[in-house]
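// run 5 | inverse folding | seed 20
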């Protein structure tokens, strides 16, 4: 006779424990891995694991096919943020959080990329040396800039977002006027940002003309 034919598969979990403090005052919430947040039966757990695996595969393949595959290696440990506290010339000239750009590029999240200052990345490479995995952050930023430009041309990106948050003063976070943007991005090292700014302005103007003609 087969054993455990009528065995109740319900899993009994222990009482929840306090969240672990990773750093003083910083608690890490891991909903998937905490036993008290798992499903009631083993089969439900298996289905949940398959869904999670498929979701992860989707994210990985999406990044690979978008040309931002290296972003999936990012551990989000934020070591690249040390670039912000370096002296001038070795820091990020636009005060961008590199990790946020990398995470946005993993899912081709254009809005997040724009809000985090990705369009202003000069691709200087100062942040790369702080990445413990040597992820080529400027290469990811460059690819995301291309993708965002294409998405803007296809109408998938809000022009208002580009104008309001894409090209801002890194200190005040206020949007730059056209004259201020051209002056700032005409400085040495900003050639790629200037080109991107002009191309995006051109697309937005063309769109406004088309709307006015209708
Ligand atoms: S590569 Fe981009 S994000 Fe990194 S330091 Fe240079 S401007 Fe900042």
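// decoded
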């Amino acid at each position: 006779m087969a054993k455990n034919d009528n065995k109740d598969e319900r899993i009994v979990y222990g009482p929840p424990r306090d969240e672990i403090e990773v750093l003083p005052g910083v608690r890490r919430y891991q909903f998937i891995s905490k036993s008290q947040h798992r499903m009631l039966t083993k089969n439900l757990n298996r289905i949940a694991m398959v869904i999670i695996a498929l979701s992860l595969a989707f994210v990985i393949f999406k990044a690979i096919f978008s040309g931002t595959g290296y972003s999936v290696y990012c551990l989000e440990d934020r070591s690249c943020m040390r670039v912000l506290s370096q002296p001038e010339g070795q820091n990020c000239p636009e005060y961008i959080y590199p990790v946020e750009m990398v995470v946005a590029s993993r899912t081709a999240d254009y809005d997040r990329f724009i809000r985090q200052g990705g369009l202003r990345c000069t691709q200087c490479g100062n942040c790369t040396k702080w990445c413990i995995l040597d992820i080529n952050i400027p290469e990811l930023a460059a690819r995301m800039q291309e993708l965002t430009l294409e998405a803007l041309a296809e109408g998938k990106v809000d022009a208002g977002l580009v104008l309001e948050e894409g090209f801002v003063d890194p200190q005040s976070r206020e949007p730059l006027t056209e004259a201020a943007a051209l002056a700032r991005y005409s400085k040495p090292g900003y050639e790629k940002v200037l080109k991107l700014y002009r191309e995006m302005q051109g697309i937005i103007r063309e769109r406004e003309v088309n709307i006015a003609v209708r």
